[in-house]
Design a protein that fits this description.
Length: 340
Amino acid sequence: MQLPRSVVVGRDALDRVASVALDIGLEGSAGVVTGPTTRRVAGDRVAEVLSEGGFSVEVEVSDSVDEATVEAVSGLDADFLVGVGGGRSIDTAKLGASRTGVPFLSVPTAASHDGVASNRASLRGGGSSKSVSADAPLAVVADTSVIADTPERLMCSGCADIVSNKTAVLDWSLAERLRGDYRSGYASTLSEMTATIMVENASSIRPGLEESVKVVMKGLISSGVAMSIAGSSRPASGAEHMFSHVLDSIAPGAALHGEQCGVGSILTMYLHNGDWETIRDALETLGAPLDAEGLGVDGDVLLDALTTAHSVRPGRYTILGSDGITREAAERVAEDTGVI
């Protein structure tokens, strides 16, 4: 079980990166992995703070997560890696660290996904992305003043990603009952509790407010910890995430990961005969998309994703079953929930 040994969330947290690294026993050289934009926002500052703290620093700038970029990061002469940015930078550093066996620190610049503290990463290749196993970060340093300045849409996506834990946990329980799959009660409870807190506090979450950023970041970190406890992504990834992965393939760039998972959670909660209206209402309050139009795709594309989502991870049993659902059933679900 890999869990962060230190979590710092607050204003000017970037200034504490070096002290956090020292506190957890890191020394030597640091490889800072960041993107072109996030380098200006936080990457250069992190490199400066680490240098002032006595570490030698090398910065690697990348804007994608594929084999080539992961190999480049793996080739850095670094005693530990620091991912500074959004999902791409963090996942690249996470995979590079896992492959080379060095520690990894996560420094998110947006509250848009639950990968900031998880043991999973998304790797792109062949026109699609896949979730792969990686090492969880030894520490997470989230500067609320930086994250509060990001576009509103990013934090809404992170909130929707947390809310979608509701259906991921239901799928996991279903797989345990019908297939005898292993399910961790601790991880399941933590994941569901995190989603429930987000749903119940949706009206108080306001992008641009640092207090709201703290709430969302704690939820994203909790989701990541739940995955580490489980040893897999199951506490936070079910049919709604499979639906999102298909959309990434057939409508790349149309919507953010969390946005797609939120809409997928409305659909799959309906299939579970659960309270999908509460999920929809929470997403609406949070400002997240609720339908195909909000995701920037047409109805046929959304139905294609819903009817083929079961094929993304054949070994992962969900409410979609092994054979998926028919087009007719998908149309009924989408129409009844107002998603198309």
